[in-house]
Amino acid sequence: MQKGEMLYEGKAKKIYRTGEPGVYLVEYKDDATAFNGLKKGTISGKGELNNKISAHFFRLLEHRGIATHFLEQVGDREMLVRALEIIPVEVVVRNIAAGSLAKRLGLAEGTALPRPVVEYYYKSDELGDPLINDDHIAVLELASAEEMNVIRKMALVVNEILREYLSERNLELVDFKLEFGRSDGEILLGDEISPDTCRFWDAQTKEKLDKDRFRRDLGGVEEAYQEVWRRLVG
């Protein structure tokens, strides 16, 4: 597939046109950022690993009936996806208290939640991706109530599928971020599912195997991403 004009470069990916209408090429980068871009660095091999891990999860979810933008992996760092009109609402599903939730609610990190918590964040770098609710989404006209109902249901199903799958591989899905978009009137899961967008912990030791190792200067970042991939493929 021919790589055409670059349409967008974000913190972790570049998006290109292809020769086929409605199909984009996503190239994953080794660049790493945290705290809304205040901390920057490079994680060697991250682009290749996130591409493979995301493709792996998208295939799993498609097999289980979740409609995604994923088409195929076409290189170590590249995949083809359907073009989406991205809905500017980041959806975070939390199973265990960590990060901002632990701070906001005064919960000890690692506290298991009695039910999944779904949060919405306005996708805006300028505003620092603030926490929002359904009323904010309606006022800002980011998505319809019907669309948000579909998105919430999809996010919870994704959570069930991934938690079960990862548990079999001795990994806990602490929390994760999803993004959705519109395509021909249908809501599709987009973006990526990787150690950049998820918190993965070893089920026994609670060792962090995700970008928190970069955020918190814990070291062993590359090894953590590699370990997630190793467990996924056995």
Automatic annotation (TrEMBL):
Single GO biological process annotation from the record: 'de novo' IMP biosynthetic process
Pathway in which the depicted protein is active: Purine metabolism; IMP biosynthesis via de novo pathway; 5-amino-1-(5-phospho-D-ribosyl)imidazole-4-carboxamide from 5-amino-1-(5-phospho-D-ribosyl)imidazole-4-carboxylate: step 1/2
InterPro entries attached to this UniProt entry: SAICAR_synt/ADE2_N, SAICAR_synt_PurC, SAICAR_synth, SAICAR_synthetase, SAICAR_synthetase_CS
EC numbers for this chain: 6.3.2.6
PROSITE patterns registered for this protein in UniProt: SAICAR_SYNTHETASE_1, SAICAR_SYNTHETASE_2
Pfam families: SAICAR_synt
Keyword Nucleotide-binding belongs to the record: yes
Keyword ATP-binding part of the UniProt annotation: yes
Reactions it catalyzes: 5-amino-1-(5-phospho-D-ribosyl)imidazole-4-carboxylate + L-aspartate + ATP = (2S)-2-[5-amino-1-(5-phospho-beta-D-ribosyl)imidazole-4-carboxamido]succinate + ADP + phosphate + 2 H(+)
Alphabetized Gene3D superfamilies for the sequence: ATP-grasp fold, B domain, Phosphorylase Kinase, domain 1
MF terms (GO), sorted A to Z: ATP binding; phosphoribosylaminoimidazolesuccinocarboxamide synthase activity
Domain named SAICAR synthetase/ADE2 N-terminal: residues: 7-231
Keywords: ATP-binding, Ligase, Nucleotide-binding, Purine biosynthesis
NCBIfam families: purC
Homology family: Belongs to the SAICAR synthetase family.
Name of the molecule in the record: Phosphoribosylaminoimidazole-succinocarboxamide synthase
